[in-house]
What we know:
Elements: E1 11-14, E2 19-23, H1 34-40, E3 45-49, H2 68-78, E4 84-89, H3 91-102, E5 107-113, H4 128-143, H5 148-153, H6 160-163, H7 169-184, H8 188-199, E6 215-220, H9 228-237, E7 241-246, H10 253-256, H11 258-271
Helix pairs in contact: 2-3, 4-7
Amino acid sequence: MNPVQSITLNVHAAGEGFPILCLHGHPGSGASLSVFTQPLSQRFRTLAPDLRGYGSSQTQTEFAIADHLPDLEALLDHYAVSRCLVLGWSLGGILAMELALRRPELVSGLILVATAARPWGNHPAVTWQDNLYTGVASILNWLNPGWQWNIETFGRRSLYRYLLQQQTSSAYQYLASEALPAYLQTSQAAHRALNRALSTRYNRLEALAQIQVPSLVLAGSLDRHITPEASFETAQHLQKSHWICYPNTAHLFPWEIPGQVLSDIEQWLAHHAEVTSTCD
Length: 280
């Protein structure tokens, strides 16, 4: 098999200081991480790429999940980053762990959001009514972001009820401004790459002992896509982890309780100054 060729990723870069590589989930884009990058870029250099097949990093060829890694290595080389903190949400968290295993010298610490090294979910079967209500809720929310009537009438009956436990107007504004555009820009090749990885029962738990840097593992107590039990299992296998599970939240909990999530990240950073230190 020919070696994987990296592609140039579109990157949302902001701020100055120690670099934080921010990796989005599926579907997603670098822009859909603004809940993290906007506050963190006040103190750090945030690099939030559109992963291969997402956002503006489109490709005409099929790829595997592992093919994201040489892209990320090339990105860090382009920005002359020799060491960085990596924040990953969902699929992005899986890639964060894989990068730490593949290139440990590059990774100073991990912030893992709604993710797991052996991901499993308990999402109910999707019905045609689910898809209908989701489509209507999405269109109306795009036209009038955060409209409470739409949330109560269609949103709570849609698939958003599994993504957001606290269906607030502010969370729906994130759906309109960041989730919907990211969904529309996610390629079919990206969908297929994720489905292939899941069909192989992806499991990297045993390898996690190799990761020696501090890790913050965050989960939503009612996450149906990657269960909190899966996230906790990951935290147990990491050598230097701190685990937080937020009650009454789901997979998109950073959009439900952004203030609490950012406060916990800031506290963790304060207790682990080494993860953003320029000294080796």
